[in-house]
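Teaching assistant's notes for section 4

Start the section by putting this record on the projector. Ask students to predict, before seeing the second block, whether Lysosomal dipeptide transporter MFSD1 will look compact or extended. Collect guesses on the board.
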Amino acid sequence: MTDKFRRSVLMLAVVAGAYVLSFFHRFAPAGIAQDLAVAFQTTAASLGVLAATYFYVYTVMQVPTGILVDTLGPRRILLIGAVVACAGSLLFGMAPSLDVALVGRTLVGLGVSVTFIAMLKIIAVWFDEKHFATLTGICMLVGNLGSVLAGVPLSLTAQAVGWRSVFVAAGVLSLALGVACWIWVRDRKDGASEAHRPKFDRTVILGGLAQVLKNRATWPATLTNTGVAGAFFAFAGLWATPYLVQVHGYSRDVAASHLSLWFGGFAVGCLALGTLSDRIKRRKPVLVATTNVFALLWLVWLSGATMPVGLSMALFALMGLATAGFSLTWACAKEVNPPLLSGMSTSVANMGGFLAGALLQPLFGWVMDLGWQGGMLGGARFYGIEAWRGGLAVIAASACLGAAAAWWVQETRCRNVWRGDGHGG
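Reveal the predicted structure now:
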């Protein structure tokens, strides 16, 4: 193992650590939804807005982040992002009101929004292209430790020490990881000095972004990400635990266990599907199969059918594996655009899912509130099966959009096929 390889692995490991925290913040509201509803006395729509602020700012930041990592490099923005996320997490943990919590959650989303694209840029610059999907899958596997922590561990910890203490600790950890990124991450493989960083040229950057957006081959991957990731972020990020408690009658801990299985299946699936895709040198068959299974599974949750807890847990694990299919969309978008625009192309694809998550979480809550019959449970609103079906129909429609778009994704055979004429290949 060469020194250069060791350095690249260490770099990726540090950023992956920050990515774990990003995933934790993304899905944490699901584990403490009941606590937040009681603490701030919110409606379902208001709770959806609180959870979705992360996704709003994350969405807005995807293209700027892609531009920044392609011009300034990931090192600086990782440190700045960590400082902002630290401030947001501390503010959220100490928030006396819903309005202050909204500001804190927004800052958290702003701070962690740079991590994923910076990580993809490091993989693209420091590692062989043929391993891109595999390494992305490994990082997703590691990152998903954060989502697993947002399930049962967060639920139990919040009950033991309070949810506020958890977010104060997360803020301190965020700052520590930012410092580690500053120490170990390097932007350029050739070791050029910071004085030789590429300068920000607005005309060139906007031209590059326009090139990615005008490329018709970019959009099927983006829409697949939008539908599948949007459904995942919206439901797993907030509504899954309350759904299982109120519709299926599970305890909070059992419901959180379902969520952890979804996250665990997603983590394993990202690694397994990325590796499978790289080995068979095909993207599209894997993407089509998984996204269509994911869409079909929503028929089960729409039915509200009673089932043994073991079966519902197995279905959540399967849903996690199927959800992981959308992780291939980053490679699909990158491989149909110029290599120098890898940050922009992956960020454009990534933006769709976060935009959908931002819109679907409050929309789900709004539809739920329309069907609320006035019931209360543990100081928070209780919703009947028909109200839940209305919200789930919104999520299912998003999943179907993603499954349909996957059929139009261009097969790249795991290599860059950009031709330079405005098309993927």
